[in-house]
Here is the input.
Amino acid sequence: MKLQFQSFSAMLGAALILFGCASPAFAETETSLARVERTKTLRVGTVNGAIPYFNKNLVTGEWSGFGPDFAKNLADEMGVKVQYVETTWGNAVLDLQANKIDVMFGMAATPARREMVNFSNPIFQNTYTMVCKKGYPVKTWEQFNAPDAKISVDVGSSMDNFVTSMLPKASISRLESTSAATMALQSGRVDCQVLVVLLAQPLLKKVPDIGTIQVPEPVLAAPVTIGMQKETDTGFTDVVNRWLAKEQKSGDVRQVVLANMQKLAGVAPESFPASVKFE
Here is the structure.
């Protein structure tokens, strides 16, 4: 009996060891905060050509834009270095889920995305505008919500989501890209293109004859946030939100946004409509 008991104990111990090794789901996973602190590296998603969010110097390989500027400030606050990982707006959520990046600056926190990744508090508010052909009457959002309002938008964007809910009665042309929606406005197929102000202002700077900008009443905006990996531990999110609150209180958020608009898009701070606030 003693031998049988010893054999059973040995088998049970081996089974427990094997079970523990073969079941990583039961092992404690490393949190985002622990990983950043351990590696001393903040991995930041970037999108080339997404001015003023991100822009890559093809000669030097250096990144600029308010995304990299915010990333450097956050990394300095945490005492770590920045590692840029090139991605796309469409792949950013997947890269967060795959543990390729730690943060993605400039993401819109849609309900669908909230199911897959975590988000910071808003960095700032990106005002919705209408870029309309010259001579087009100034309208409120309610007045735009009519069949005679011909509007273009890039399909699947936060702006598409906005007009779908805000302007269900308008004649909406949903096109494959922002540039395609702009071409519809240039060709006269639509009267206006809905754009957030950080995209509208560079467009008017680049193509001043395309029309004029309207900020319909009431002033509405999309919160710009920081995407992070989905996890129950709030340590990393808390660090990011504390840093963000300090940046906002000091006025650095507005300064970084306006500085990059001028540096990368040639848009002077005074050219923004008075109703646009980065708060």
Summary: The first helix runs from residue 2 to 22. Confidence is low (pLDDT under 50) at residues 1-12, 14-27. The chain is about 40% helix and 20% strand. The CA atoms of residues 156 and 174 lie 9 Å apart.
